[in-house]
Design brief:
This protein is mainly beta and 423 residues long. It has two helices and 31 strands.
């Protein structure tokens, strides 16, 4: 080795420190990039040369080289956002997205997603988020696929099966005689109406009349008579048909002596619109008889009509929820996550995306609850770049570069002295 070899040692130092400065600059440039993972440059010495001396053989180093640029996958902090489709992962997982052209899978921690015009859940570059589609019962359909919400989908109707009537019947009400379906207004003390749904989602009006029975023979007893307009079940318009009836007994405190669950008569609800002809409805009479005006305290039924999709949202289990105009939410899909045995071996592809490599190993795919991470909605994971640490690295890298440049200028002066020996 000659004196000129020190020039190459200095050059190697300049090169490695230049690479380190590039890594630092990239980290700082991405300090506000969502989901960005910081990198670090590691140096290694170059193969040494052997020289012989009076004490034996020795080694002289030949400078430094870049060993590896590591990706640091430490957890970033979360930023709260206003959009429900903004997602952040706590844990080792990655979102999976597919290239819209090649369909190749990519992996990202940046969860700034949106639903596009076709209903696909996509990132800003148009890559489609991967997950599992669900059937009407919330069960998984098929394999991993693009998550898509059919914006023109319907939520099917549900026929009413149960009604709850919470009412008070005035204990001071007079006895008006036996109930007459042809004169319900004058042969009942009170009436309560509620809309119900058939199997096609069409609404019908059920009216229940309450009649105080003869106190001489039926003390503290009332009759109930549930009716529909006859035209709804193939009868004469403008008349009523009884579809269910019964009695309820009260004690001297105004409470029912036993629960009363009335059921409409089998085959009575034969709707004329070809809906289910076997519909039966159970009526839970949560009724009191106090010395107070007859009133409906509350009433509810469990049916609903068809609904159109009006809003999409995502919950913390990664489910894509469709909210329909009939007030019924439904799970449409579930977002999948992937983790790797060696995430540091992933290859950066730009746009916050990574691809697999031999070093990373294949993805381990799962959903929330299977050990791949947790999802937080209305949140984005911030860059894990530590600016203070990067500026310290910048100072030491700059000093290293200056020192290596000094090696070159000093060696140049030494070579100049050597050349001047011939004068």
């Amino acid at each position: 080795m000659g004196i000129a070899s020190s020039l190459y040692s200095g050059v190697s130092g300049l090169t490695t420190n230049s690479h380190a400065m590039s890594v630092i600059g990239n980290n700082i440039a991405n300090s506000n990039t969502i989901g960005f993972k910081t990198s670090r440059a590691l140096f290694a010495d170059l193969l040494s040369s052997s020289v012989s001396g009076s004490g034996g053989t020795s080694q002289i180093g030949r400078g430094s080289g870049l060993s590896v640029v590591d990706n640091i996958f430490s957890q970033g902090t979360f930023q709260n956002t206003e959009l429900n489709s903004d997602l952040a992962i706590e844990g080792p997982g990655f979102f999976m997205v597919a290239d819209p052209v090649t369909s190749e899978l990519r992996f990202t921690r940046a969860g700034a997603f949106r639903f596009d015009a076709d209903g696909y859940l996509v990132n800003p570059e148009g890559f489609k988020v991967q997950g599992y589609m669900l059937d009407m019962d919330g069960n998984t359909i098929g394999d991993l696929t693009d998550i898509k919400a059919n914006t023109r989908s319907f939520s099917p109707a549900n026929a009413t099966a149960n009604i709850t009537l919470n009412t008070n019947l005035n204990s001071n009400a007079p006895y008006v005689g036996p109930f007459d379906i042809n004169d319900p207004a004058n042969t009942s003390n009170y009436a309560a109406s509620i809309q119900i749904y058939d199997s096609l989602g069409q609404t019908h009006l059920l009216t229940t009349y309450f009649t105080k029975l003869d106190p001489a023979t039926n003390p503290l007893e009332w009759g109930w008579y549930t009716t529909v307009d006859s035209s709804e079940i193939g009868g004469t318009p403008g008349t009523l048909t009884i579809v269910g009836q019964g009695t309820m007994q009260f004690d001297n405190t105004g409470q029912l002596t036993a629960p009363v669950i009335g059921v409409t008569n089998p085959g009575a609800l034969t709707w004329t619109n070809a809906a289910d002809q076997n519909q039966q409805i159970a009526i839970d009479f949560q009724t009191t008889q106090f010395s107070s005006d007859s009133v409906v305290v509350a009433q509810e039924q469990d049916g609903f009509g068809t609904g159109t999709l009006v809003k999409l949202s995502i919950d913390n289990d990664g489910y894509v929820i469709g909210n329909f105009s009939n007030g019924q939410p439904r799970k449409l899909a579930q977002i999948a996550l992937a983790k790797f045995s060696n995430p540091g071996g992933l290859t950066k592809e730009g746009a916050n995306l990574f691809s697999t490599s031999d070093k990373s190993g294949p993805p381990i795919i799962g959903t929330v609850g299977s050990g791949v991470g947790k999802i937080f909605t209305n949140s984005l994971e911030q860059s894990n770049v530590d600016l203070a640490q990067e500026f310290v690295k910048m100072i030491t890298t700059q000093r290293g570069f200056q020192a290596n440049s000094k090696i070159i200028t000093t060696t140049d002066e030494m070579l100049n002295e050597l050349i001047n020996l011939k004068r």
